Amino acid sequence: MKILVLNCGSSSLKYQLIDMDTESVMAKGLCERIGIEGSRLKHQPVGKEDVIFNDYMEDHSVAVKMVLDALTNSEYGVVKSMSEINAVGHRVVHGGEYFANSVVITPEVIEAIEKCCELAPLHNPANLIGIHACEKIMPGVPQVAVFDTAFHQTMPERAYLYAIPYEYYEKYKIRRYGFHGTSHRFVSEEVAKMMDRPYDQTKTITCHLGNGGSVCAVRNGKSIDTTMGFTPLEGLVMGTRAGDVDAAVVTFLMEKENLTPQEMDNILNKKSGVLGISGVSSDFRDIEDASEHGNERAGMALDVFAYKVAKRIGAYAAAMNGVDAIVFTAGLGENSASTRRLICDYLGFLGVHIDSYNNSLRGKAIEISAPDSRVRVFVIPTNEELVIARDTKELLDK
Predict the structure, then answer these.
(1) Is 265 a catalytic residue?
(2) Measured between alpha carbons, how far is 367 from 359 in angstroms, rounded to an integer?
(3) Does 54 belong to an annotated binding site?
(4) What percent of the chain has pLDDT over 70?
(5) Catalytic: which of 148, 225, 324, 391?
(6) Would the annotation count 383 as a binding residue?
(7) 225 is in an annotated binding site
(8) pLDDT for 75-103, tens place per residue?
(9) What are the chain's domains?
């Protein structure tokens, strides 16, 4: 079975074609600037040269058509025809309280996703565009939706309710949803395999650390708490997002600076985080370089970030009454040995000890804790596309 995995943004489309017999990627690529001058498709077929197309893509339907043409091209394609593609798996950001699992896409599912657009106005509409584009270009091919929020639907009320009047939860579904669920699920399953322990008998804290970041407490295979909330703004300090902040700061700044809600939202989502503290960049690599060259604010940004992550790890160890493993994943979590070291230096109370050599390695799943560490610590590259493909195959097999 061959499954096309799509991740649609407002003006972008990432894709992978995966052969599920071997779970190997046949081709992957990215369409950029859809509907904007300077559209570009980078197609990367395994075993062949990358191909770049600088053709204008009017909308996502055109982009999907270009992707399919590239995949089936006699020279740089990887399948002979579209008929070899058995299904499409879509990343959908927000499933609200409607979806606790991945689902085959039906008109009723599309309607529910549309209802969640208010909760994820930047993401769900783009995800729907990708779904409708595939309906148009690939009629009759089954499609599956895999939700970022679904894994966290196992959180208990004590974890997801906000202490605001309950009527706002009832009227507007204002609650904590959590995100990065596909990634947290993948690495928590993988670490159980690496430890040779049953997934439903482990206590794991997963740290998805990139430009956006979240920490998740996974007890016995279920998410019981996570740092992101009603939106991805809550929780950790991130690249440009403020994370947790006293709500009174928001109204105070709006009055002092005469800001509109939209302007305040832009500050919290686009101008804050390590960018706001350091004044250097939202890219942790730039901040690490600036810190090494004596930039005190850059060093401060790294310290704040590591402290906030470590504090959540400690809180989740308490929430689960113990922890067997801590996992680092995503761009920063997988690639920055110094960030992992900064975080783990706070975790001596848990008996965490890091092996410096293993911590310096990159690009593979590895245990980085020392033999005498009471809690095992791992780095595991995430693979959300494979989760989407696996869920798609499982649903179609049923």
Answers:
(1) no
(2) 8
(3) no
(4) 100
(5) 148
(6) no
(7) no
(8) 999 999 989 999 999 999 999 999 999 99
(9) 2-147 (3.30.420.40), 199-379 (3.30.420.40)
